[in-house]
Design brief:
heterotrimer, A mainly alpha (about 375), B alpha/beta (about 260), C mainly alpha (about 425), A: mainly alpha, two-stranded antiparallel ribbon, 2 strands, flat, B: alpha/beta, Rossmann fold, six-stranded mixed β-sheet, four-stranded antiparallel β-sheet
Chain lengths: ~375, ~260, ~425
């Protein structure tokens, strides 16, 4: 073995950096080409030319010999990665700006007070642009109550079932079974919501309608219940959210130190007393965060309600009635051919804005609650 | 860094060397000279800063968050902490082996070939293979693994893994090798093999080894530096340190009152 | 402690356990119900009834001249030829049935097949060929639901007699419905297939991976290894965590405004769908990549640094490959979610009726889950089984993806958090 330290490190660094740079440029070129191809061929070509020029310009200072160029190269690479990270922030800003911009156009046509305070939602009245007073009615309240009603029903199903199944997994299930359940929950969480929508539309909706009518008949009353009732949509949404709540709650409950559990059991408490008296109170902030995230999911869930809830707005809290939600209306307003400047279309963006901020508030609250919980136990 | 083609005197001269984690001073103004092609052992009770001072010798210390170094280390006459010296280049020339064997989750061959590839030492594939073989022969692992170079390194035993990472380190052709308690996770048989290996390595490069074991230090060290609370309290050949320690703290340690 | 209170405590314990178990059983039960319902419905989508018909391609019946050109053949009345073949096959039961009623028994797919055969070989004109003609959706449903029952609403008694006659003569068979996999959407349920939606989904998901994977991994590596600890980076982190919980429909709105209205990209195209899905998958990939990197022992990075690797070298070489199984698992799960995503694709117009699979990501297309939505909403009952069939296909894809993720995890669980 030669014992010299006279090692020329430059060639190697050059080769490695070269490979990295070429890889990165190829990836960027692919990306740009894809993006540009969405626009037109000319910009795809322009992007390719631009990238080659950029590569040529960078290869000198970044790939030359010497430690300075290596440091420059690494600083550039890290800078590029930092820039890419900022892109995620750009997405959020993009959402806010896009929604604000389109909503502003909507509010120039419909006063914001009428939107937020109105109790009638019937955008389908705006058939012809030249009709006087044909802008339709855009009162968001019935949509909010509809969304809330379905969310409450969903949480009544998913909350208890999800948390209790998490407790079962922690307290009673043996490890092998626990793993099996976790795999099943993961699979269940992966089922697309459009599948649940179909389930609600074809099976649960008609079943609930029939059951409600049957029960009413027992009491001598004849009622009409639509298959598109809020109960069915909410129930199926709850079923959809169970694995979500359950796996979040499981994480929270398992994060509670074993010493707490053992402490309770060592005092002679039963498992139920330990879990209800010690673990659950300790886990409460984390569980609340989990439930807030679940509510956020329920509010933003679209396909189940598009398929299983109604499209006509209805200001009611009767679970057997047909109600509609904000997400349903966004889809309804934006499907089919439409002009992008009629109030009917623009209203969808105003609804999107409300939805975004509602879920943002819940997500952030959950995030901070979860952080505080984690700080306490990790 | 110097670029001379002659073999360097791989000596370390530490002057007023201090190391910090945030505000905590772990190493306190150490002055220390480490000779070329000798085994120097660092000893002392747990938390005395012996591992930290080892990590300042190849600028690994500062890879941890809010770690800081003051003072100077001259490596064969060149200041390691001079402005413009890239720690990356320093580490390429001064190898380090850690307490727990840390093979990469790659094949045995790829582990040893890591540094030659990274540093561009090998010009051809056969040169690379020769280097890998040489490194593995040097650590006495070649006969054990030559038929399974394509197997994962994680399948080796603890002692084999530690010899593998030493082979990985010397394949980078360092001038000095720093070992941080290399035997603490090993059984006695493996320990004996590593000690032999250290002795043979010292014929070619400077070896600094942190150890907990008095017996080990006595067996392998040409010089021993004893640390206490971040200060170097005694330095000398093992005979002197073990037979006639001048510092009471060393005496206490030797008779087992501390550490 | 009194015995009474002890008994009460034991009862409470048992009750609590029963309730907790019940919760899990309920969840499992609902899932089984969902699967059973869809399986029962969807199994029929893969089969259909066909009638073996000997069809005389008689120029007179087709209403063309004996030496008809290709253009003239395009106007031929294949329906009449099919009708005659049915009438002959089911004689004498067919004698009392009107032309319209006869037409309604056999799918137009038979006519398309005849036109196709003739255009390929004009020498067939004047000869007769035997084909397995798919029955219409009404006849197919009738046979699937109540093969012997009378009074099926959508078929007249006379039509039912014709079917009974065909059956008695052994002309009817149950065959694998290849059209379901090979065809695009169709307004005739018995001819409708998932091909166009499947190809559209593949294009969209492909575009999404191409964009989200490099972007997500680069972001995760930056945040995990290089980012300074400051308020800006903290903000970025909160941002990404929030983005993971933003409703998918919002991403659809963003895609509509940015890609279609502002940038003028084509509506209904998988490229736009892919872009939207990429934005949605991005947070998942970032979060998973970060946790895979965190799960690596620090000795790995130290080992590389001690060999003279820079931080970037270390990330590229031992760290990312070591984290790759974890990243791959996360990407697969993200892809699985993107594959089932429906709402944002509807908003960017991928709900169009698409009969032929797109050839590239710029052509108008549908997607598999959107097809589920479209078919579920359509009034023909025959589409219900198609919907369930498409769902089964979708779920099989998802189970395969999840299985792949599990296999990767099991094979390479060296470093796991």
């Amino acid at each position: 073995m030669s014992a010299g330290v006279a090692i020329d490190l430059r060639a190697a660094r050059y080769r490695i950096r070269h490979r990295v740079l070429i890889g990165a440029l190829a990836a960027t070129a692919c990306l740009a080409a894809l993006l540009a191809a969405g626009l037109d061929a000319a910009s795809a070509g322009a992007a390719a030319v631009l990238l080659s020029v950029l590569a040529a310009a960078l290869s000198g200072p970044l790939l030359g010999p010497g430690p300075e160029s290596r440091q420059r190269f690494e600083a550039t690479a890290i800078g590029v990665m930092g820039g890419l990270s900022a892109l995620s922030a750009l997405v959020t800003f993009g959402i806010v700006i896009a929604l604000f911009f389109e909503s502003a156009r909507f509010f120039s046509l419909t006063p914001i007070g009428d939107f937020l305070g109105g109790t009638v939602w019937s955008p389908q009245m705006a058939i012809r642009a030249d009709q006087v007073g044909a802008a339709g009615a855009f009162g968001v309240l019935p949509l909010v109550t509809g969304t809330l009603l379905i969310t409450i029903i969903a949480m009544l199903v998913a909350g208890p079932i999800g948390v209790l199944s998490a407790i079962y997994l922690n307290a009673y299930a043996n490890p092998a079974r626990r793993d099996a359940y976790k795999v099943a929950l993961e699979l269940l969480a992966g089922v697309p919501t459009v599948v649940y929508g179909f389930f609600a539309l074809l099976m649960v909706g008609p079943f609930f309608a029939g059951a409600a009518q049957g029960i009413a008949r027992l009491f001598g009353a004849e009622i009409a219940v639509s298959a598109q009732n809020a109960l069915a949509a909410g129930f199926v949404m709850g079923v959809m959210i169970i694995p979500f709540v359950s796996s979040l709650a499981d994480d929270v409950v398992s994060a509670i130190p074993a010493s707490l559990r053992e402490g309770g059991l060592a005092l002679g408490a039963t498992k139920s007393e330990t879990y209800l008296g010690i673990i659950l109170p300790a886990a409460a902030p984390g569980l609340i965060a989990a439930l807030m995230l679940a509510v956020s999911r329920a509010i933003g869930e679209t396909m189940i309600v598009v398929m299983a809830a109604s499209r006509t707005a209805n200001l009611t809290f009767n679970p057997l009635e047909r109600v509609t939600t904000m997400t349903v209306q966004i889809v309804a307003l934006l499907t089919g051919d439409q002009e992008f400047d009629s109030p009917k279309t623009l209203a969808a963006f105003a609804l999107g804005l409300v939805l975004f901020f509602a879920t943002l508030a819940l997500n952030l609250a959950a995030l901070f609650a979860a952080r505080r919980f984690r700080l306490r136990y990790e | 860094m110097p670029d001379g083609s002659q073999r360097l005197e791989a000596t370390f001269k530490c002057r007023k060397l201090s190391a910090y984690f945030g505000d905590r001073k772990i190493v306190r103004e150490v002055d220390l000279d480490i000779a070329d092609r000798k085994v120097t052992a660092f000893m002392g009770p747990s938390g005395c800063g012996k591992s930290t001072i080892l990590r300042t010798l190849n600028r690994m210390h500062e890879s941890a968050p809010d770690a800081r170094v003051e003072g100077s280390v001259l490596f064969s006459g060149h200041e390691l902490y001079a402005r413009g010296v890239d720690p990356v280049d320093v580490r390429a020339r001064i190898g380090m082996v850690f307490q727990k064997p840390n093979p990469f989750p790659k094949t045995i061959f790829d582990n040893v070939a890591f540094a030659p590839r990274l540093l561009g030492l090998a010009r051809t594939r056969s040169d690379l293979e020769r280097r890998v073989e040489e490194a593995l022969v040097n650590v006495g692992l070649w006969t054990e693994v030559k038929d399974r170079l394509k197997d994962s390194a994680l399948g080796l035993s603890g002692g084999q893994q530690q010899r593998l990472v030493i082979a990985r380190a010397i394949a980078a052709e360092p001038a000095a090798l720093l070992l941080d308690e290399p035997c603490s996770a090993l059984d006695p048989a493996s320990t004996a093999r590593i000690e032999e290996l250290i002795a043979s390595l010292a014929r070619r490069l400077s070896v600094v080894v942190v150890t907990h074991s008095l017996a080990q230090a006595r067996r392998i060290a040409d010089a021993i530096a004893f640390f206490h609370n971040g200060e170097m309290v005694e330095f000398g050949p093992p005979g002197q340190l073990f037979e006639a320690p001048s510092d009471p703290r060393v005496k206490d340690y030797l008779v087992g009152r501390t550490g | 402690m009194s015995r009474k209170s002890q008994r009460r405590r034991r009862f409470a314990e048992r009750a609590f356990r029963a309730v907790a178990t019940g919760a899990l059983v309920f969840a499992a039960g609902m899932f089984l119900l969902l699967c059973a319902g869809i399986a029962a419905l969807g199994a029929e989508a893969f089969l259909r009834h066909e009638a073996r018909l000997e069809i005389a391609l008689d120029a007179a019946v087709l209403g063309v001249s004996a030496q008809a050109s290709a253009a003239e053949l395009g106007t031929a009345d294949f329906r009449a030829a099919v009708r005659r073949a049915v009438a002959e096959a089911a004689a004498p039961a067919a004698d009392t049935v009107s032309e319209i009623e006869l037409n309604a028994l056999i799918s137009p797919g038979a006519e398309f097949a005849l036109a196709d055969a003739l255009s390929r070989n004009s020498g067939l004109l004047g000869r007769s060929i035997t084909i397995d003609a798919p029955l219409s959706d009404a006849a197919d449903r009738y046979l699937k639901e109540s093969p012997d029952a009378r009074g099926y609403a959508r078929l007249s008694a006379a039509q039912q007699d014709v079917i009974a006659a065909l059956k008695a003569k052994g002309r009817l068979s149950r065959a694998f419905n290849a059209d379901f996999f090979a065809s695009g959407d169709s307004s005739y349920p018995e001819l409708a297939g998932v091909a166009a939606g499947f190809v559209g989904s593949m294009f969209s998901v492909g575009v999404a991976i191409l964009i989200a994977l490099p972007l997500g991994v680069a972001t995760a590596v930056f945040l995990e290894e290089f980012a300074p600890k400051n308020a800006l980076v903290d903000f970025l982190e909160i941002n990404i965590n929030n983005l993971a919980a933003v409703p998918s429909i919002i991403f659809g709105l963003l895609g509509l405004v940015v890609f279609i209205i502002a940038l003028g990209m084509p509506r209904s195209a998988p490229i736009v769908g892919g872009l939207v899905l990429a934005l949605m998958t991005l947070p998942t990939i970032i979060i998973v990549t970060r946790s895979s990197l965190q799960a690596l022992p620090s000795s790995l990075k130290e080992g590389a640094l001690a060999l003279g690797a820079s931080k970037l070298d270390a990330v590229l070489n031992p760290l990312l490959p070591a984290a790759a199984p974890g990243i791959a698992t996360g990407v697969i799960i993200g892809v699985a979610r993107a594959l089932g995503e429906t709402a944002p694709l509807i908003l960017i117009g991928m709900v169009a009726f698409v009969a032929t699979p797109p050839l590239n990501p710029l052509e108008p297309s549908s997607a598999l889950p959107v097809l589920v939505y479209l078919w579920a909403e359509s009034p023909e009952t025959a589409f219900a089984e198609k919907t369930a069939g498409a769902i089964i296909l979708l779920l099989v894809l998802l189970i395969v993806l999840n299985g792949l993720a599990a296999a990767i995890r099991r094979r390479a669980n060296v470093y796991r958090r």
